[in-house]
Write a structure and sequence with these properties.
single chain, alpha+beta, Transferase(Phosphotransferase), domain 1, Phosphorylase Kinase, domain 1, 3 domains, seven-stranded antiparallel β-sheet, cell cycle
Amino acid sequence: MSQPSTPTKQKIWIFCRVRDCYVLERAVRTESNELDPNGMDSDEEVESSRLETKAEVMERLGGESRAPPPAPMKKKAASRLSLREREEQKRRSAEKKKEEEEPQGALVYEMGGLLSPLTDEHYDAQDPRSAMEQLFTDVEPIGKGNFGEVYRGKYKGDKGKWYAIKKSLTTDSGKAVKEVKGFQQIPPNKYITEYVSGWLDRGLVYIQTELCEMSLLAYCRNGLEEDEIWKVLVQVVLGLRHLHTSGFCHNDLKPDNILVKDTVIKIADFGLVSRVNEEWCAGDEGDSRYLAPEVFSQKVFTTAGDVFAAGMSLLEITTGLHMPPQGDVRNILIGGRTPSRFFHGRSIDLREIIESMIRRNPEARPSAWELLEHPIVKSYKDSKDEVSGEHPWTPATSTLSENYRLRRKKSRMPPPPSADETPKRRVKVRQEEDKENEDRLFMARVRAKNGLFAEEEHCESEEDKYFIADIV
């Protein structure tokens, strides 16, 4: 997997004596008008009346503040079918219904999109109950979205550990399958929700992950002190840096898709994950309240778009604003003209770094690497792994890395033999594979004993790291 090049380290954040805060040097040169202190709060009284906090909206409406309704979907025109086509359609529907009613074994998603039968001591393929009902106890719903429902349950094995299980709503589960593949390809990280397993059961996709306590939106419901907001910012950016270093874009970052577990902030929901600079397809866009303006104009997912979504999320939890989905009110935020009353009690540095992330011009936004070079952000990083420019790898003994190693190992398993392959040929191939593995194991032990794997450059691939971790 080719990784994007990390920006060259340089003094990108400078102290502006006029504003008494740190500003992005590149933005000072290219968009100095945005940083003009004299024009920053122009017409503030007019714009302030057009923006409201969530509390103000609730007070005005006398009820609960709700997110704006989604855009109406265009109805498909009913196609005229011939009598033969209608009969064929009925026959297929009957067969599909019969297959769904009959007990079928669940299939686990392996690396590369392959499916294999689910095997577990607590699962019986002939049992009419779903795999989730068989494998977990005390199952209860904890959330619901446009594409799936989320449950929590206690696994019957593993000493009764609790997990989150996401279940797709319909058999048209393209987004759910994409989320499984995205989870599998992203290397494990402290600030990414841990993926455990994914399986297909009766046409529905299930995704098992670690169980977090709440979403960032719920975590910030009663407001946060500025010190806590800086900590949230640092961890969100660390998660983004890991994604971008691995060559992926999230494309749907928002407070609902950022979870909290033991005060650690974790990015979740990878249903719209894509490769960096992958072309945009209609219907794949995320929440319009957090979506970067260039996504619609250029139709390309970029890392700058993720930075914009993170900035809008931080703006929401910092100011408590009722986020507008579109229109002139949204342009006030993107133009850096958010009235000062919404930042009451917040520092100029916090306001500047958030507004730098949501600039209209993506070239003027700081990257995740550049955000981590901000002097105040640096002071909040308390781990030696977080200081490195590369994404941190957890120790080979951790659960995260073990799961990742097993998924990679399964992806290297040969496909089942074809029908025309003779038994003699299969035995010969197996003997050759065993000899190759024995030679590789012997050489790995010799090299490990001599300390040749002390430095990363002696490992031929990421797979070798985990292979050596098993034998050392």
